[in-house]
Amino acid sequence: MQAWGVDPPHRLDPAEAWHRFQVFDTARQRLVDAGPAQGTARLYVCGITPYDATHIGHANTYVAFDLLNRTWLDRGLDVDYVQNVTDIDDPLLERAAATGVDWDQLAEQQIQLFRVDMAALNVLPPTHYVGAVESMSLVADLVVQLQRRGAVYAVDGSDLADLYFANGSDPQFGSLSRLSQDAAIPLFAERGGDPERPGKKDPLDCVVWRLARDGEPSWDSPLGAGRPGWHIECAAIALDRLGAGFDVQAGGTDLIFPHHEMCAAEARVATAGSEFAKAYVHSGMVGLDGEKMSKSKGNLVLISQLRDTGVDPMAIRLALLNHHYREDWDWTDEGLAAAGGRLNRWREAVRLDAALNADEVITQMRAALAGDLDAPTALAAVDAWAGASTAIDGDDADAPGLVARACDSLLGIRL
Ligand code: 5CA
Ligand code: ZN
Description:
It is a single chain. With 415 residues, the chain is of the alpha/beta class. 41% of the residues lie in helices and 16% in strands. The protein has helices at residues 56-74, 90-99, 103-120, 136-148, 181-190, 230-241, 256-270, 303-308, 313-321, 333-350, 359-370, 375-391, 399-411, and strands at residues 22-25, 30-33, 40-45, 78-85, 128-131, 152-156, 161-165, 206-211, 226-228, 246-252, 277-283, 286-288, 291-292, 329-330. Strands 5-4-3-10-11 form a five-stranded parallel sheet, sandwiched between helices. Strands 6-7-8-9 form a four-stranded antiparallel sheet. Strands 13-12-14 form a three-stranded mixed sheet, covered by helices on one side. Helix 10 (333-350) crosses helix 12 and helix 11 (359-370) packs antiparallel against helix 12. The longest helix is centred in the first third of the chain and has 19 residues, at 56-74. The radius of gyration is 22 Å and the shape is globular. It starts with 21 loop residues before the first strand and ends with a helix. The model has no long low-confidence stretch (mean pLDDT 96). The site of zinc ion has 4 residues, from loops.
């Protein structure tokens, strides 16, 4: 499907020496090199389930991985970036039924709002933006492949033999989240799984093809009419568009288990043991008043609402970047106000006729991002340059423009 439009970043002059670019890999629990040294980096970021508007938590996740994308681009790499849209799944059907809207119209409205929000936040679009609905045959093909490897079985409900993936067919199942069965079962239930369903081989096995029910949308396939389970959707889209062994699989920490664990397991079995992604990178959860912000809880601060009240999207972006992407934190009005103040100070500095030389601040921003996308340190470097430039009579006439370009290119902050 169509993504959204954002001007590509201005390329800065390459650095004389690059810092090693590392990110934290959830699977290995340590910093690892991010992407290749040259050529094309391959990124998959899990996209929205479009049943409600983009909130600050989603925005934080997409801005976090936008920094990853921008850092690769700055280093001269091409980036093959895939993002999905879960445009058919239970939460979408439930919300559509509750509000009396057609599920596909609800999805289209919310996807469109997401596009506008992402463009306002200066998030670079993925190179492939792919919906589940347009990927039905890919998903069915992947389920067939898994069937051939003996990794799929039918669970007979009343009269519906839904197809399940057998986790036991992947020797590495559990290696990403490293949860005990006791810890995994309630999380699985909370995040769309059905550990209690009778007839499953393992409570954590997940549905890969759900047969058609009355009143639910379904798609014809060699598996029977039905619709995909959630995890197989991302496994199928990522394998098709990027191939196994792509560089980074990304999303919020709430996707580590079951979603990314299951995607990786399904993909490993389908590809005879090839690793799905080289690294799994997760952003922290943003909350409100001590609780995770979530569509299901309804405690949301929406990007579109903030925009409607005249908040500058660049202030929202700066408020997000003030937290390291792996931090869990609470959104506050004070944080937004502080970001607005910072934006004004930066704007004032880049409008000076002359300022302090830009080399050092750009080097510091690049070094901060290369060290696990440390945006707060990059922001502090710009603060120091802006503060000193406004206080002292700098004599470098190129510096204001260069720093403005670096803020746009590296941080996605348009001044
Ligand atoms: N469609 C699936 C992924 S395939 C999905 O999880 N959709 S979502 O709309 O629920 O979430 C979209 C992204 O936002 C995910 O990466 C999720 O981890 C992230 N996210 C959701 N809530 C928060 C939050 N409160 N803070 C930070 N990130 C969040
Ligand atoms: Zn996903």
